[in-house]
Design goal:
By secondary structure, the chain is mainly α. It is about 95% helix and about 0% strand. It contains two helices and no strands. The chain has helices at about 10-45, 50-180. The N and C termini lie far apart (about 180 Å).
Length: about 180
């Protein structure tokens, strides 16, 4: 921003004029360099024939075309490989789906078998419980019968002793009466 010259003192006016001169010099050198650049570019373009420029451009395009053709072939090969992989992946997926279906069928069959086995197991447990109850009952009956047998054996022993005593006493009386 420029200052108002009516409000500036001498030092400020001098500084302002020096700044304006410097700015003008910088603009002048910039314009000279720009003109020199334009003239050099025109000379260069006039020195190089247009055919040479076209040849260089065509050479660049040829190299680029070769590279793109090579890349295109490589990409086509890669695309073919990807399509083959995709087909094999689809086949694998189909096979895996079949396997999953078969495994699910086996799983449901095994679950049904498991239910049957569990049912049979609960029945077997109930039978085992009943057998234990029957065994306990038989053991109690056996113990009662053993007690009765023991009681009868005791009675039998006493009876046998009494019989023997009776027999001895009768024999003793018979012998005593025979002696007398």
């Amino acid at each position: 921003m420029r200052y108002d010259p009516r409000r500036m003192n001498k030092v400020q006016k001098k500084n302002q004029s020096l700044a304006d001169q410097h700015r003008d010099e910088v603009l002048e050198t910039f314009k000279k360099k720009q003109k020199k650049l334009v003239t050099n570019t025109l000379k260069k373009s006039q020195e190089e024939p247009i055919e040479k420029i076209h040849e260089a451009h065509q050479l660049k395009l040829g190299k680029k075309l070769k590279k793109e053709t090579k890349d295109n072939k490589r990409l086509k090969a890669k695309l073919g490989q990807n399509q083959i992989e995709r087909r094999t992946d689809r086949q694998k997926i189909r096979q895996l789906k079949k396997t999953v279906t078969n495994l699910e069928a086996k799983r449901t069959k095994l679950q049904a078998d498991l239910l049957k086995v569990e049912h049979t197991q609960t029945e077997a447990k109930q039978q085992v419980k009943q057998l234990y109850k029957d065994r306990d009952g038989l053991e109690r009956t056996n113990e009662d019968q053993n007690r009765q047998i023991q009681s009868l054996l005791d009675i039998n022993r006493r009876a046998t002793k009494n019989y023997q005593k009776l027999t001895h006493s009768i024999e003793g009386h018979v012998l005593a009466s025979l002696r007398s």
